[in-house]
Amino acid sequence: MQTNEQLLSAIENYLAQTEFPAEPGLLYAPIGYSLAGGGKRLRPMLLMLSNGIFTDKIQHALPAAAAVEVFHNFTLLHDDIMDNAAVRRGKPSVYAKWGQNVAILSGDAMLICAYRLLGEVPAQLPQILSTFNTMALEVCEGQQYDMDFERKPKVSVVEYMHMIELKTSVLLAGATTIGALLGGASEEDCRKLRRFAIELGLAFQLQDDLLDSYGDERLGKAIGGDILEGKQTYLMITAISRADEPTREVLRSTHRSQMPDAEKIATIKAVYDRLDIPRLTEQQISLRFERALGILDTLSVEKSRTERMREYALSLMGRKN
């Protein structure tokens, strides 16, 4: 089986060779711009790795891998409009560069292109389309819940975990399941790999929440953005659930205060530290991640077949073992 680096190279080459018409330029240029933005290629990598657990003939899975990546980037175009986001992956977002109308229409075209790529898969298209459609609709549900939470005065940890499962994990789960289906996996193994990807996605999103407040700016985004937005993250929701009423008011109102941004971030992080929020978040990340790895051990294949997936999951979470 190919190494993870070779798989990533194969995905990049396939995406680079995917042709879009030259005209109308304002429809197709933003698509190429978006796909050339890099990123982790997390979803197509999970699809290819899942496929490789069950077969060594993985080239046939590349159109589906490209489809989930194009779909993911479509969601980012529309997310940036909803979030009024000027930057994506360190460069101007499509929305900032070309405007709202172009971002909407190019995003729509990307969704259609994703389905066109999916139509190139060699087998089991009805089942794969069903999996893809369920995944796509659940991502929309997750985005709506995320927007709802901006106006909701109180969000529980259970509600938040359900939202990030829909917004983040189901796309990973759909990609992983499609890869397994194309590899000839049994229904039971597909079900297990879906659960693996759900748990991995939860761990990944919780880690992202933690790094937003406690990470390093070299990761590519400013630290404390979630705090300045007053965003309902796992850290904020857990802190509110553990705080007394005066502290809750600090957590809820600091982002709207007149104090400098650095002071807002320091104020909220001091509360997090006092309430032991970083450790509790790390604990939840480890729980979800270990649960994901444990599922790989239950598949009906030799353990060596899952080593690439395990290696990739570890690298994704910045772990060695």
Please tag this protein with its features:
single chain; 321 residues; mainly alpha; two-stranded antiparallel ribbon
What secondary-structure arrangement, pairings included, does this model have?
Layout: H1 4-17, H2 25-35, H3 42-54, H4 62-83, E1 87-88, E2 91-92, H5 94-98, H6 100-118, H7 125-151, H8 157-182, H9 187-214, H10 225-229, H11 234-242, H12 245-253, H13 261-274, H14 277-296, H15 307-316
Helix pairs in contact: 1-3, 1-4, 2-6, 3-4, 3-8, 4-6, 4-8, 7-8, 8-9, 9-14, 11-12
The coarse overall form would be: globular
Can you write the helix and strand succession as a string? Answer: HHHHEEHHHHHHHHHHH
Q: Name the poorly predicted regions.
A: none
C-alpha end-to-end distance: 21 Å
Count of strand segments: 2
Which range best describes the helical content: under 10%, 10-25%, 25-40%, 40-55%, 55-70% or over 70%? over 70%
Annotation field: number of helices: 15
Mean pLDDT: 93
- State the strand order across the main sheet: 1-2
Percent range for β-strand residues: under 5%
User: From the alpha-carbon coordinates, what is the Rg to the nearest angstrom?
Assistant: 20 Å
Label the structural class. Answer: mainly alpha
In this structure, how is the largest beta sheet organized? 2 strands, antiparallel
